[in-house]
Amino acid sequence: MFLTVKLLLGRRCSVKVSEQESVATLKKLVSERLQVPEEQQHLLFRGQLLADDKRLSDYCIGPNAAINVIVRPPEETALMEAPQPQPLWHQLGQVLAKPFKPQDAEAVLQLLRQEQEQRLQRISLGDLEQLAQHFLAEEQADSQPERVSPRPGSTCIMQEREEKVEAKEQEEVATSADQ
């Protein structure tokens, strides 16, 4: 069977495998075709992360399926370059501790965590791809300002979608408050 393997930023290839092949074998093929080291690959099928020790048939992956590849940065480089800030939730807890009692601050923090988790679950791979392309375009514009110019009237799709979700949530809260 043939599978389409697609990187988050658009490169893709087709690979021929059997349903009994392991995910690790698929990673080797992807590494050869797309020049992405196996240890940097996260393979996703229908939003589910594929484990190296499983077979493609374990995930009901059939002919002509599309597999997404998310590339992780090399661990050594990422650890050296990235500063180690305090986690967001710890910092937010410190900010909330000033105006609130400890149990109130914890309750607000818990609600914020739940809301963030719900919003993250609504993000699709397509949304992530659009966001990555947006940031990539910005990065290219910063490095080559004379060659890249933004389209007039362009907007951030993610921001529009977020505003629609917030408006719908506010409408639902208002409706339930009226009842």
Question: Can you put this structure into words, describing what you see?
Answer:
The protein has 179 residues and is an alpha+beta fold. The chain folds into 2 domains: 2-73, Phosphatidylinositol 3-kinase Catalytic Subunit, Chain A, domain 1 (Ubiquitin-like (UB roll), Roll); 89-178, no CATH class. 50% of the residues lie in helices and 13% in strands. It has 6 helices and 5 strands; from the N terminus they run ββαβββααααα. The chain has helices spanning 23-34, 75-81, 88-97, 102-121, 125-143, 157-178; strands spanning 2-7, 12-16, 41-45, 48-49, 66-71. Strands 2-1-5-3-4 form a 5-stranded mixed sheet, with helices on one face. Helix 3 (88-97) packs antiparallel against helix 4. The N and C termini lie far apart (55 Å). Mean pLDDT is 79; it is low at 147-155. Keywords: Cytoplasm. It is found in: Cytoplasm. It comes from Tupaia chinensis (Chinese tree shrew). Residues 137-179 are annotated as: Disordered. This is Ubiquitin-like protein 4B.
Level of helix content?
40-55%
Our count of domains comes out at 2
Tell me the total number of β-strands: 5
- Biggest beta sheet summary: 5 strands, mixed
Strand arrangement, largest sheet?
A: 2-1-5-3-4
Catalogue the unreliable spans.
147-155
Shape: elongated
Structural class: alpha+beta
Radius of gyration over alpha carbons? 21 Å
N/C terminus separation: 55 Å
Helical stretch tally: 6
Which whole number gives the mean pLDDT? 79
Q: What's the order of the H and E elements?
A: EEHEEEHHHHH
Which percent range describes the beta-strand content?
5-15%
